Amino acid sequence: MKKYVFGVDIGGTTVKIGLFTSEGELLEKWEITTRVDGGGKHILGDIARSIDAKIEEKSINRDDVAGIGMGVPGPVKSDGTVLKCVNLGWGIFNVADEMKERTGFEVKVGNDANMAAFGEMWQGGGKGYKDLVMVTLGTGVGGGIIIDGKMLSGVNGAGGEIGHIQVNDHETEVCGCGRCGCLEQYTSATGIVRMANIKLNNTDAPSSLRNVKYISSKAIFDAAKDGDELASGLVEEHGRILGKALAQIACVVDPDIFVIGGGVSKAGNIIIEKTSKHFQENAFHACKKTQFALATLGNDAGIYGGAYAILNE
């Protein structure tokens, strides 16, 4: 049994790296800058050097390292081929093969939201379950689907892209994906702020949000918790749209549990209460007992998931 494994979560600004024991204990975590200049050509070399430096610092025998699990912000095929990561400047190439060549270790690569789902299943809000859907509500909406302990990546690495389920046929504003009416246009942090600004601009309804210079999702949920009627309506609508979308997902996937993470989830149990309420109203009868939980690993979910991807081989 190998003693150590590395988990890596590549973001557009920083790369998070974690050193774990094979039992799942996080020994140390650190970050390096994501150098996206030159089409992101420096990123993998920087990661490899950082891991090599940590191995040397800790006097780790390289034969005791099981491998490196990596999450990247884009679609990834099962063989580790990335199908473009716009935020990193990457085109289409096999990240797993290149990283293995640089380090000599076994490498598994997956979409970052999928890796976060693995992490939450292993040591987070979904611990104890093998069938779960992870929903990340951040700047966008991401997702990861795990069936019988295995990641559902899809042929093109687009499995779990739940943020781009179309929920409004009449939307005219364009989503980042180029289409209109996607789930993330309403339930992401930017989405609920967009809805708030529309409501504030199109009505004269009184609201404490009118006194907030820069409205954030946190401000909206805080105002709702304080009884603000307009904010409460926005939070209810957020839960309705998300809950209904997850009810459709449950018809296909039928998970044990939905784990909700990302920055918006910091609002706490109000997210679970509103989403599960509207889920119940829309769910197929056999799926109504699906559970909901908040993610618990925060920004570390991706590195936990990367480590698990290697240990679960």
Task: Give a short overview.
By secondary structure, the chain is of the alpha/beta class. The protein has helices at residues 37-40, 43-57, 95-103, 112-123, 184-187, 189-202, 217-225, 229-253, 269-282, 301-311, and strands at residues 4-10, 14-21, 26-33, 65-72, 81-85, 90-94, 107-111, 132-137, 141-147, 150-151, 257-261, 291-294.
Can you characterise this structure?
With 313 residues, the protein is of the alpha/beta class. The protein is built from ten helices and twelve strands. The model has no long low-confidence stretch (mean pLDDT 95).
Topology, element by element:
Layout: E1 4-10, E2 14-21, E3 26-33, H1 37-40, H2 43-57, E4 65-72, E5 81-85, E6 90-94, H3 95-103, E7 107-111, H4 112-123, E8 132-137, E9 141-147, E10 150-151, H5 184-187, H6 189-202, H7 217-225, H8 229-253, E11 257-261, H9 269-282, E12 291-294, H10 301-311
Parallel strand pairs: 1-4, 4-7, 8-11, 11-12
Antiparallel strand pairs: 1-2, 2-3, 5-6, 8-9, 9-10
Helix pairs in contact: 2-3, 4-10, 6-8, 7-8, 8-9
Spatial strand sequence of the major β-sheet: 3-2-1-4-7
**Major sheet details:** 5 strands, mixed
Helix content: 25-40%
Question: What's the mean pLDDT score?
Answer: 95
Number of helices: 10
Cα-based radius of gyration, to the nearest Å:
20 Å
Mass-distribution shape: globular
Give the number of DSSP strands.
12
Give helix and strand order, one letter per element, not per position: EEEHHEEEHEHEEEHHHHEHEH
Distance between the termini: 13 Å
Query: What structural category characterises the helix and strand content?
Result: alpha/beta
Please mark out the parts with pLDDT under 50 across 5 or more consecutive residues, or reply none.
none
Q: Strand-residue fraction?
A: 15-25%
